[in-house]
Amino acid sequence: MTLDVADLVARARDGQARAIARLISLVEDAHPRLREVAAALTPFTGRAQIVGLTGPPGVGKSTSTSALLTALRKQGKRVGVLAIDPSSPFSGGALLGDRIRMTEHAVDPGVFIRSMATRGHLGGLAWATPQAVRVLDAAGFDVVLIETVGVGQSEVDVVKLADTTVVLLAPGMGDGIQAAKAGVLEIADLFVVNKADREGADATIHDLKQMISLSRREIRGPSWRQPILPTVASRGEGVDDVVKALEEHHAWLSSHGELAQRRAARARSEVEAIALRILRAELVDVRGDRLAELASAVVERTLDPYAAADRLVADLHG
Amino acid sequence: MTLDVADLVARARDGQARAIARLISLVEDAHPRLREVAAALTPFTGRAQIVGLTGPPGVGKSTSTSALLTALRKQGKRVGVLAIDPSSPFSGGALLGDRIRMTEHAVDPGVFIRSMATRGHLGGLAWATPQAVRVLDAAGFDVVLIETVGVGQSEVDVVKLADTTVVLLAPGMGDGIQAAKAGVLEIADLFVVNKADREGADATIHDLKQMISLSRREIRGPSWRQPILPTVASRGEGVDDVVKALEEHHAWLSSHGELAQRRAARARSEVEAIALRILRAELVDVRGDRLAELASAVVERTLDPYAAADRLVADLHG
What we know:
2 copies of one chain form a homodimer. The first copy, chain A, is 55% helix and 13% strand. By secondary structure, chain A is an alpha/beta fold.
């Protein structure tokens, strides 16, 4: 089948889910005409609000995403969701998105949901996800929601991609929050305490407040106050407040020059990740024999791995 | 303080824990004289059996590591442990190693334990861990045990580093094992079912046996049969059998040419990771201004990120 990139982009912008899905697949699979795709998308990017949603397992991320979709749709906003699965052989894979896909939103043309497994990707989220975000941005979604489970490196990567990062917590994680400390504070633009009807919700909110008031003096300026919003996502309670807070944060970002700064940082790491991918392909594909030869010398202990890497890089520079 | 690399390596080989710790720190921090360190270590490497230990949270990895240490020490083997923590803002950090360090092994000169947090490292385990393994190998440990919690990418990376990979499971993870499927089978050289005195242990072992017998026909040759070993690590039960299975697997690897093959693959990915690190430093440090300039063009939509990355790479080669 001939690939008509311009037509595909036009159809994606027309809201056709299949065209959007195809574009994301082209990006994920590093299609040979990826550069053409990237160039065709670019004029239409830069409009969406990009929201990251993360939190430890069990806080109700899928339910919260679904409730947030409902609330955003009520306002007429089109929403694209990327459910990032840092898939593990122990967890299976692509769990988050599949669960959501089953819900009421599956047939809503104003919603597009896609799961992406990071396993096997160089640098996990770093490379493919920003490109998928660009697809959804160019397709005209008002909000792009990147959902990931908070394990390992993925939630840190999500922060780098998002304009606004929502950290989801739940009662009964008392120790978890204590342990989390500064890490969570650094990444959260707003906190949502889900399952707020459960015992311990007040304590969780109280702990968070204390952590924030301590940290604000130390690591943050006074101008953005990280809100703490209680929700019961399964009943949609409190979710409108989250939507409101997202708007407020976006407005704050824009008026304080932070949006431009975050987007510049994002573009920087995006370009860097692609450049590294190109260089890696050169090392492995083009210089594969040389790499194997140098690796043999390392096994035989006639070269140490640094000396071997130096030679490989020198070869590359030519 | 002047750094005398040769003296440091000599003291590490003499079993001095402080020298070993210092060498690993030099490696982790990418000390300017890293190349000298790598070269000094190389003649003494290639002797240790490198064992990876992974499994989902809650299966008793720290207890199992501790029990394995006791069993290996009984045989007079010196053991170095790297406890890899794919630290998350939600889990704090460096939990595994700290817990072990508190135990009986802390004062045993035949044991060295170190935790490494992967957060913030480019490619997580890919770069710093192999270098730390080389330190322990060169220091003369008979076994280097790399322990990591099975979330995200880390357990896959561990497999790439280890001669032998042990996957730890526990009863009551029924669904987990079902979900895990081929992923776990691909990475495990041997299975340990810990907490084998608990209800459901027989079912877990049964499930594993079925998975293995199915997969052997499909994805494995007949020559290595992944053993399934029940343990109660908290009481040291079954752990000697694990040690025996580790020896058997090592012997099998050696006699089937697999050891050389795995070590060649490891050297290859090690050299590749270091080369990528060098190239990344060139992009970010040396060409940082150019990267910022190109990133601005991406934000302004005058360039797409691929075109920007192509220019950056061309500059680097140029």
